[in-house]
TrEMBL record:
<keyword id="KW-0007">Acetylation</keyword>
<feature type="domain" description="Aminoacyl-tRNA synthetase class Ia">
    <location>
        <begin position="60"/>
        <end position="256"/>
    </location>
</feature>
<dbReference type="GO" id="GO:0004823">
    <property type="term" value="F:leucine-tRNA ligase activity"/>
</dbReference>
<dbReference type="InterPro" id="IPR013155">
    <property type="entry name" value="M/V/L/I-tRNA-synth_anticd-bd"/>
</dbReference>
<protein>
    <recommendedName>
        <fullName>leucine--tRNA ligase</fullName>
        <ecNumber>6.1.1.4</ecNumber>
    </recommendedName>
</protein>
<feature type="domain" description="Aminoacyl-tRNA synthetase class Ia">
    <location>
        <begin position="443"/>
        <end position="599"/>
    </location>
</feature>
<dbReference type="GO" id="GO:0032543">
    <property type="term" value="P:mitochondrial translation"/>
</dbReference>
<keyword id="KW-0436">Ligase</keyword>
<dbReference type="InterPro" id="IPR014729">
    <property type="entry name" value="Rossmann-like_a/b/a_fold"/>
</dbReference>
<comment type="similarity">
    <text>Belongs to the class-I aminoacyl-tRNA synthetase family.</text>
</comment>
<keyword id="KW-0496">Mitochondrion</keyword>
<dbReference type="InterPro" id="IPR002302">
    <property type="entry name" value="Leu-tRNA-ligase"/>
</dbReference>
<dbReference type="InterPro" id="IPR001412">
    <property type="entry name" value="aa-tRNA-synth_I_CS"/>
</dbReference>
<dbReference type="GO" id="GO:0002161">
    <property type="term" value="F:aminoacyl-tRNA deacylase activity"/>
</dbReference>
<keyword id="KW-0067">ATP-binding</keyword>
<keyword id="KW-0030">Aminoacyl-tRNA synthetase</keyword>
<dbReference type="InterPro" id="IPR002300">
    <property type="entry name" value="aa-tRNA-synth_Ia"/>
</dbReference>
Length: 902
C-alpha cells in the first residue's frame, strides 16, 4: 500500500511539472499562492469526500491554471477546421447580471467542447460601449461618459474573469474607442457613396423646456420628459437614414439559405414583409416652379408606372409638417376628411411623367406607408379617386385572349409581360439611382441619427457651397471633442462645441460645419463580428482573407429580443460588405442560439410597488408583506433592480462555486427556455449531488487501483464480462447522444442528464469489474472528459487524480496533459456495427414478464421503448386496459419496468 502511494506521489510531482511547462514547481507556487488545504493537486493525497472546503480549494487551485492553459492555445493553426463562436457583446453597465452569466456560460462550454474536438476556435469578447446611459451618468453624477464607461469595462472584465470564462481576450474590441469607430465611419462613408445613406426630415421627441431631443427611453408612460417633466412634443428635424429597404428582397430571399435559424427566420420574414413593389423618386413643383425638393412614393405594381394618375400622401406626411417650402401650399389645399387635389406636381425621375399630389382623407394606407403612387390600371380604389378628382391617366395593362397580361402605352416596356416589365423597370430605376429597390410596404429605412454626444460622430461636413460632403478617408476618425460638463439641456452637446463644429470643407476648403448628430449604437454592433476576425488592423476594417477564413460565424448566441432589429441590421451590413467585394460570404451567421431569460420572483403590493425579499413573509401559505400582512401578487419576471428580483452573480458564485452555478444554468432548462431562478428546486441539489457522485466514483476507483492488486481483465468471469460489455455499450450510447446535443440542438441540460445516467451506472458496477475491466476505466475517463467543458474545475482535479493511478488499462488518453486538453471521446467503430435489434426485458411492478425486440437506435429512448412495449403482443396482453402510473428505462441493462395500478 505504501509503495502504491509513493508511486502516486511521484506521478503527482511529474504532472505538476508538465502542467507548468517546466521543472520549476516552486516557481509556479510563488506565482499562484498555495492557499489550498485538502486537494490532491496540492497535497499528493486524495480526499475521499467532496466537501464545501474541497470545492473551494479545487476552484482556487485550478482557476488560474485553466486560464493560463486557454491563453496558450494557438488561434492561427490553419490546419485545423475553424469554429467561430460568438456571443452578443454586452453594454458595459458596470455589473454583470445572471442573463450575462447564462449566455457566456453557454458559449464557454461550447467553445471548450469544440477545442476538444480539434477545432480552431475563437470565442471573442468586447464591449458595446456607446449609448445613452453613459451620457445620463454624465448628467446625473458629473462624470465624463468615457471615464464612466472605461471604469465599468474594467469592473465587468474582472467579473467575467472570476467566472473562469475562456474568451479570446487578445481580440477584445470596444466600440467607443477611435480605433474601432474610425471604421464605423469608414463604412458609413461607403454607404453614402453607394447612395445608401441620406438625410431627410423625420419626427423626434422634443423637450420644450430643456430644448433638447429625447430618446424614446427618456419619455415616460405619460409622454413626459424624464428630466424636466414637460409634455414631450413631436418635432421635425433633419435625420440621417440608412437605406435598408435597398436590400429587403435580397435579405428576404436569403432567409432560405439559413435552415439553422430556428424560430428566428419567421420573425425576420415578418419584419421585412412581402417584397412585391418598390419606391420611386419624384422631384416637386408648385405652380409650375421647380422647388428643388424631392419625395419618394411606393407602388406594388411598378411595371404599370406609365399609368400613374397621382401621388397620394397622408395628412401626417412630413411635407405638411416639417420645414418644407411646400408646406403652406399643401396646407392651404388641405380640407380634413376629404381627398384634396393640391397645386403641387410630382415629376417621376424615371419616366419624367408629371402628376398631381393628392392629400388623402384617410389617416393610413397599406403597411407603414405615408405616400403611394396612384395607378388606376391596377387599383380600383385609385380608379375611383382619379375619376372623382377628374385626373387623367392611361390604361397600361392589356389582357390577351390566353389570359396573358402585357404592357401597353409604356414606352420601351410596351409589349412586355407584367413580370418582364417589373424586372426591367426596377432594374432601370436602380441604375439611375431613382428608386427601384424591391421591398415591402411595411419596411422603413433605418433612422440612425441621435442628437447625443456619446456615439460615433457622423463623418459629414456641411458646406454652403458643396453641400453635405464626406470627410476624406485619410482624415478619419472624426473623434469626439472633450466636453467638460453635461447638462442635458439646449440640444446636442456636440452642437455646443464650436471649435469642433467649425471646420473647412474637404472639397473647396471654405468655411463649413461638422455634422453634430451621432449614430445609433446599433450601427456599431452591425459589423463588430467582422472586426473580431482582424481586431488590430490599422489600415482597414478587417483583412478580407482573414474575414473569409473565419466567417460566417458558426454559432451566434444571444437573446431572442434581438431577433429582428440587431440581426436585421447585422445581415444588412454583411450583404453590403459582400457587394463591396470586402467578403465572400453574404450571410454573417450560420447557426443561431437564442437563449431564454433568467427570471426572478417578484413580490408586488396591490398598489403595484415591488418589495425586496426581506420585506416579504414567506412562512404562511401565501406570501404577505412582513409589516402590513397585505397579501402579495407573486410573478416570475425578468430580473431587474426596480423589481427587486435580481440575483448578484458574485454572491451566488461565492456561495455555491463556479462549477455549481455553471451546471445549474446548463441543467435547469434547455438554452432557449426561460429559467425560473429558485435554488430550492431540484436542479441545484441535483447538480451538487452529481459532483459528489463523480468525486465518490473517482475515489472508489483510485482506492481500488491503489490497493496493490494489479488489474487483470482475464480474471473476469463471463457474467462480469457481460457487465463490462453493458458499460461499454452505455458509454458509447452516451458519447453519441452528448455529442449530438453539443453539435445540433445544444440541449446541454439533456447532455448533463445523459452524463448523470452514466455516472449512476458506473456507481453500480461490481468491485471486480471496476478493478479489472478496461471498459469501466474507459467509461469513467470518458465521463470526466465529457463533463469537463461544463464543470472545468472539478474535472481538472479529478483528472489529475486519475492520471496518477498506476497500471492503467487505457492507453488512448493523453495522461500528461489536463482534462481540457484531451480529445473528445469518439464512439467505438464496433458499437456502430451493433445488432439492429435489442432484446428488451419487460417488468411489471418489478416482476419479469418477458422480452420484446426493440430497434437498437431507440433502445436508449424512454418514450419510444415505452410505446414499443405497449404496441407489442406482450404489451397488448399484459398492459392493455391497465392504469400505468410510470415506466422506468435502464438502458445499461436493456430493461424497462412498468408501475401499474391494478
Amino acid at each position: 500500500m505504501a509503495s502504491a502511494w509513493q508511486r502516486l506521489s511521484f506521478y503527482a510531482s511529474l504532472l505538476k511539472r508538465q502542467l507548468n511547462g517546466g521543472p520549476d514547481v516552486i516557481k509556479w507556487e510563488r506565482v499562484i499562492p498555495r492557499c489550498t488545504r485538502s486537494i490532491y493537486s496540492a497535497t499528493g493525497k486524495w480526499t475521499k469526500e467532496y466537501t464545501l472546503q474541497t470545492r473551494k480549494d479545487v476552484e482556487k487551485w485550478w482557476h488560474q491554471r485553466i486560464k493560463e492553459q486557454a491563453s496558450k492555445i494557438s488561434e492561427i493553426d490553419k490546419s485545423k477546421p475553424k469554429f467561430y463562436l460568438l456571443s452578443m457583446f454586452p453594454y458595459p453597465s458596470g455589473k454583470l447580471h445572471m442573463g450575462h452569466v447564462r449566455v457566456y456560460t453557454i458559449s464557454d462550454t461550447i467553445a471548450r467542447f469544440q477545442m476538444m474536438r480539434g477545432m480552431q476556435v475563437i470565442n471573442p469578447m468586447g464591449w458595446d460601449a456607446f449609448g445613452l446611459p453613459a451620457e445620463n451618468a454624465a448628467i446625473e453624477r458629473n462624470l465624463h461618459p468615457e471615464s464612466w464607461t472605461q471604469s465599468n469595462i474594467k469592473h465587468m472584465r474582472k467579473q467575467l474573469d472570476r467566472l473562469g470564462l475562456c474568451f479570446s481576450w487578445d481580440r477584445e474590441i470596444t466600440t467607443c474607442l477611435p480605433d474601432y469607430y474610425k471604421w464605423t465611419q469608414y463604412l458609413f462613408i461607403k454607404l453614402y457613396e453607394a447612395g445608401l445613406a441620406y438625410q431627410e426630415e423625420a419626427l423626434v421627441n422634443w423637450d420644450p423646456v430643456d430644448q433638447t431631443v429625447l430618446a424614446n427611453e427618456q419619455v415616460d408612460e405619460h409622454g413626459c420628459s424624464w428630466r424636466s417633466g414637460a409634455k414631450v412634443e413631436q418635432k421635425y428635424l433633419k435625420q440621417w437614414f440608412i437605406k435598408t429597404t435597398a436590400y429587403a428582397k435580397a435579405m428576404q430571399d436569403a432567409l432560405a439559405d439559413l435552415p439553422e435559424w430556428y424560430g428566428i427566420k419567421g420573425m425576420q420574414a415578418h419584419w421585412i414583409g412581402d417584397c412585391v413593389g418598390c419606391h420611386l423618386d419624384f422631384t416637386l413643383k408648385v405652380h409650375g416652379q421647380v422647388t428643388g425638393e424631392k419625395m419618394t412614393a411606393y407602388t406594388a405594381t411598378p411595371e404599370a408606372i406609365y399609368g400613374t394618375s397621382h401621388v397620394a400622401i397622408l395628412p401626417s406626411h412630413r411635407l405638411l409638417h416639417g420645414h418644407s417650402s411646400l408646406k403652406e401650399a399643401l396646407r392651404t389645399a388641405l380640407v380634413p376628411g376629404k381627398d384634396c387635389l393640391t397645386p403641387v406636381i410630382a415629376v417621376n425621375m424615371l419616366t419624367q411623367q408629371e402628376v398631381p399630389v393628392v392629400i388623402l382623407a384617410k389617416a393610413d394606407v397599406e403597411g407603414s406607408l405615408d405616400s403611394k403612387i396612384g395607378i388606376p390600371s391596377t387599383s380600383s380604389e385609385d380608379t375611383i379617386l382619379a375619376q372623382t378628382l377628374g385626373l387623367a391617366y392611361s390604361e397600361v395593362i392589356e389582357t390577351l385572349p390566353d389570359g396573358t397580361e402585357r404592357l401597353s402605352n409604356s414606352a420601351e416596356f410596351t409589349g412586355m409581360t407584367r413580370q418582364e416589365a417589373f424586372l426591367a423597370l426596377t432594374q432601370k430605376a436602380r441604375g439611375k439611382r431613382v428608386g427601384g429597390d424591391v421591398t415591402s410596404d411595411k419596411l422603413k429605412d433605418w433612422l440612425i441619427s441621435r442628437q447625443r454626444y456619446w456615439g460615433t460622430p457622423v463623418p459629414i461636413v456641411h458646406c454652403p457651397a458643396c453641400g453635405p460632403t464626406p470627410v476624406p478617408l485619410e482624415d478619419l476618425p472624426v473623434t469626439l471633442p472633450n466636453i467638460a460638463s453635461f447638462t442635458g439641456k439646449g440640444g446636442s452637446p456636440l452642437a455646443m462645441a464650436s471649435e469642433w463644429v467649425n471646420c473647412s470643407c474637404p472639397r473647396c476648403k471654405g468655411a463649413a460645419k461638422r455634422e453634430t448628430d451621432t449614430m445609433d449604437t446599433f450601427v456599431d454592433s452591425a459589423w463588430y463580428y467582422f472586426r473580431y476576425t482582424d481586431p488590430h488592423n490599422p489600415h482597414s476594417p478587417f483583412n478580407t482573407a482573414l474575414a473569409d477564413y473565419w466567417m460566417p460565424v458558426d454559432l451566434y448566441i444571444g437573446g431572442k429580443e434581438h431577433a429582428v432589429m440587431h440581426l436585421f441590421y447585422a445581415r444588412f451590413f454583411s450583404h453590403f460588405c459582400h457587394d463591396q467585394k470586402m467578403v465572400k460570404h453574404r450571410e454573417p451567421f450560420h447557426k443561431l442560439l437564442a437563449q431564454g431569460l433568467i427570471k426572478g420572483q417578484t413580490f408586488r403590493l396591490p398598489s403595484g410597488r415591488c418589495l425586496q425579499r426581506e420585506e416579504v413573509d414567506l412562512t404562511g401559505s401565501v406570501p404577505v408583506h412582513a409589516k402590513t400582512k397585505e397579501e402579495l401578487e407573486v410573478t416570475w419576471e425578468k430580473m431587474s433592480k426596480s423589481k427587486h428580483n435580481g440575483v448578484d452573480p458574485e454572491e451566488v458564485v461565492e456561495q455555491y462555486g463556479i462549477d455549481t452555478i455553471r451546471l445549474y444554468i446548463l441543467f435547469a432548462a434547455p438554452p432557449e427556455k426561460d429559467i425560473l431562478w429558485d435554488v430550492k428546486t431540484d436542479a441545484l441539489p441535483g447538480v451538487l449531488r452529481w459532483q459528489q457522485r463523480l468525486w465518490a466514483l473517482t475515489t472508489r476507483f483510485i482506492e481500488a487501483r491503489a490497493s496493490g492488486k494489479a488489474p487483470q481483465p482475464q480474471l473476469l468471469s463471463n457474467k462480469e464480462k457481460a457487465e463490462a460489455r453493458k458499460i461499454w455499450e452505455y458509454k458509447n450510447s452516451v458519447i453519441s447522444q452528448v455529442t449530438t446535443h453539443f453539435t445540433e440542438d445544444f440541449s446541454l441540460n439533456s447532455a448533463i442528464s445523459q452524463l448523470m445516467g452514466l455516472s449512476s451506472a458506473l456507481s453500480q458496477a461490481s468491485q471486480r469489474v471496476l478493478l479489472h475491466s478496461p471498459e469501466f476505466e474507459d467509461a469513467l475517463c470518458a465521463l470526466i472528459v465529457m463533463a469537463a467543458p461544463m464543470a472545468p474545475h472539478i474535472t481538472s482535479e479529478i483528472w489529475a487524480g486519475l492520471a496518477l493511478v498506476p497500471r492503467k488499462l487505457c492507453a488512448h488518453y493523453t495522461w500528461d496533459t489536463s482534462v481540457l486538453c484531451q480529445v473528445w471521446p469518439a464512439v467505438d467503430p464496433e458499437f456502430l456495427q451493433q445488432p439492429e435489434v435489442v432484446q428488451m426485458a419487460v417488468l411489471i411492478n418489478n416482476k419479469a414478464c418477458g422480452k420484446i425486440p426493440v430497434p437498437h437506435q431507440v433502445a436508449q429512448d424512454q418514450d419510444k421503448v415505452h410505446e414499443f412495449v405497449l404496441q407489442s403482443e406482450l404489451g397488448v396482453r399484459l398492459l392493455q386496459g391497465r392504469s400505468i402510473k410510470k415506466s422506468f428505462l435502464s438502458p445499461r441493462t436493456a430493461l424497462i419496468n412498468f408501475l401499474v395500478q391494478d
